Fold this sequence. Notes:
Elements: E1 6-14, E2 20-29, E3 33-37, H1 44-52, E4 59-64, E5 68-71, H2 83-86, H3 90-100, H4 106-112, H5 118-128, H6 145-159, E6 163-167, H7 175-186, E7 191-195, H8 199-202, E8 207-212, E9 215-219, H9 223-275, H10 280-318, E10 339-344, E11 349-353, E12 357-361, H11 368-377, E13 383-385, E14 390-393, H12 406-413, H13 419-428, H14 445-457, E15 465-469, H15 477-489, E16 493-497, H16 501-505, E17 511-516, E18 519-522
Parallel strand pairs: 3-7, 3-8, 5-6, 6-7, 12-16, 12-17, 14-15, 15-16
Antiparallel strand pairs: 1-2, 1-4, 8-9, 10-11, 10-13, 17-18
Helix pairs in contact: 3-4, 5-6, 9-10, 12-14
Amino acid sequence: MPTPLLSFDAVSLEWNDGSLALHDVSGAFGTGRTGLVGRNGSGKSTLLRLAAGELAPTSGSVHRIGRAAYLPQRLTLDVDRPVADLLGVGAVLAAFRAIESGDPDPQHFDAVGDDWHVEARAHAALAEAGLEPAALDRRLGQLSGGEAVLAAIAGIRMSGAPLALLDEPSNNLDRGARERLGALVQGWRGALVVVSHDVELLELMDDTVELYDNQLSFFGGPYSAWRACLDAEQDAARRAERDAVQSERREKRQRIEAETTIAHRKQMGAKAFVEKREPKIVMGNRKRAAQVSAGKLRGEMRDSETAARSAREAAEQRVRGDDGIRIDLPDPGVATGRRIATLGDRERSWVIQGPERVALIGANGVGKTRLLEQLMTGEGERGELHTDRVGYLSQRVDGLDDAATVLDALRQAAPEVPTGELRNRLARFLIRGDAVERPVSTLSGGERFRVALARLLLAEPPVQLLVLDEPTNNLDLDTLDRLVEALDAYRGAVLVVSHDRVFLDRLSLDLTLTLTSDGLAAG
């Protein structure tokens, strides 16, 4: 068996507050493309950060052969980072341009070395990712979320690292960008580990690894094959559980029947003894024999019931009891004809009224997020709010204080709400116990989304318009299902930006607006 490029040996990680992020995780990743899957909060992003060297394990060890290039899930929060630095050419490019401008400082020549084609290489890498050369001189905050991710992937390819670690790389990407990402992944040279909930991307993987309950399980094949295998295993486990429950009930019933028979025989023996139907010595012998027989029967029945109980408990352990989040969006009391917002341009406009569902779509970089931000601030000419009861979840989920605990982040939004109710609200989003004391900075993308959404749900009075910018980013499939159900039941208006066509189709949209460089259009 070839030596793995990345391995974890009994790795545990404990946060500063004492809560465990990972416990005794072991496993190895080899060459080729591997999809790392698991529910939100299972520790996938933490595992990648350990692999990249961003975190050090509390116990155990991480072994890596060669360099690792890492795409973090929260890349888009680093808004001031130059794209050139993201490509790994910032210092060399600055030196090259200084020489071009006539600066003879020897340090510039030392920095450039033999890389006189650095600018051309960077432009070629950006072009391969579908980006214009001008992106090289921008900062991440000047790019759309999708453009930032593509630029980062271009930088990873330029680095030539033998191991690449990508955390949710398809977040924010439009259809065309996802196709480019797919092409890059299919032609990837070197080992690749991808954390994702994007089924299409996971289908391009050679192998699938699941992180579940601090265990890494390996499957040779893409997501669909792994999912089919897991579903078959769980169906068999549930059948075994039902059979074991029935067997335990049957053994219990038989024990009760046996106890009833024993009690009846004892009662009849006592009656015969009183009535002196047979000689005393005969009845005494018969009584002792009955007691021995009853004890033996009780032991057999007890052993059978214990065995059935153990079998039922073992069967239950093979059935996954995954909790699902509960999203209860409050009723804002929006009348059908109530004007909520207006979107448009100089030629046309569309009014969102009542509990309508409106989608805003368009290619990466066309300005969808900017339009939402202008709508929220009232600074733009393409939108106007007709209510001040608006809840906004940004694409970057950057409205949270990273230094605060999860509980404090929620308390900042609702200072008058008792701590017990704050904890109850977080529990509905599967953030319980000591986890509420974790710093926000340690949360996965899906967990950050849950906390941000929980903040919106505590608003008083309830919001009348939910503005969601790429809400499916980082969400596992179960959480996404719960979000769709909650939005379906919500009685307020929803304005959503998303590249996830399947998600949008499930929302029963009343209107779809497409933003292009020429403006807004319906359909």
